[in-house]
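Researcher: I'd like a candidate sequence for this fold, 228 residues long. If you have to choose between options at a position, lean toward the conservative one.
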């Protein structure tokens, strides 16, 4: 087989990036479904957070919704999977950046989200709630910044990706505000956290699949640092 044929049949960076973001969606929600099935105590989706799935010990804690039992036998699977998941998110963003004309600021936002996600996976809430909470800040804000930047910069390449990024950014911001009220005892922490942190995975699938549509001229151009 000729070298040219091999190169032609090799997957492109866009195809790989698209696949990675779809995998990130499946891994995120798939891991949660698998891990929660092993809980010996009830998992209350309205009151338990996603982070509770990574707790390394069984505990009872006073939460805004009352005293909750948390016990996650498959915590190691969840936390290791979380590290892999966020690495996939960051890699996918870098591979899709040229396709959507994203700037270095947009890529940086994705990497900030990646770093925060790895951090909360490495430091579960029961090990240090302070450190876990601080590490969650770049996870939330990095994801929101990625959505806002992408909404602006993708307009000329894919209106679908741009509009969906703006819509998901609105949902994410609403979730953050809702989460603040919930942590103060005025709402379901579980649902508000999911809206704030998990909505972006729907957009990953949209952006990933949309990237596979016929590329346009300049998809391999270098992102411009001056755009924000």
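Model: Candidate sequence:
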């Amino acid at each position: 087989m000729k070298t040219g044929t091999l190169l032609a049949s090799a997957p492109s960076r866009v195809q790989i990036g698209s696949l990675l973001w779809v995998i990130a969606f499946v891994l995120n929600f798939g891991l949660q479904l698998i891990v929660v099935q092993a809980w010996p105590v009830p998992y209350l989706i309205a009151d338990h957070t996603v982070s509770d799935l990574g707790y390394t010990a069984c505990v009872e804690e006073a939460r805004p919704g009352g005293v909750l039992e948390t016990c996650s036998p498959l915590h190691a699977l969840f936390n290791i999977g979380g590290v892999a998941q966020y690495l996939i998110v960051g890699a996918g963003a870098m591979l899709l950046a040229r396709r959507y004309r994203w700037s270095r600021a947009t890529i940086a936002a994705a990497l900030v989200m990646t770093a925060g996600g790895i951090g909360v996976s490495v430091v579960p809430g029961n090990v240090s709630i302070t450190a876990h909470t601080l590490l969650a800040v770049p996870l939330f804000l990095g994801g929101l910044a990625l959505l806002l930047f992408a909404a602006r910069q993708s307009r000329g390449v894919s209106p679908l990706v741009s509009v969906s990024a703006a819509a998901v950014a609105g949902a994410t911001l609403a979730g953050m505000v809702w989460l603040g009220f919930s942590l103060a005892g005025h709402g379901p922490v579980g649902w508000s956290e999911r809206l704030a942190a998990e909505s972006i995975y729907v957009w990953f699938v949209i952006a990933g699949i949309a990237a596979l549509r016929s590329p346009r001229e300049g998809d391999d151009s270098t992102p411009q640092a001056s755009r924000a």
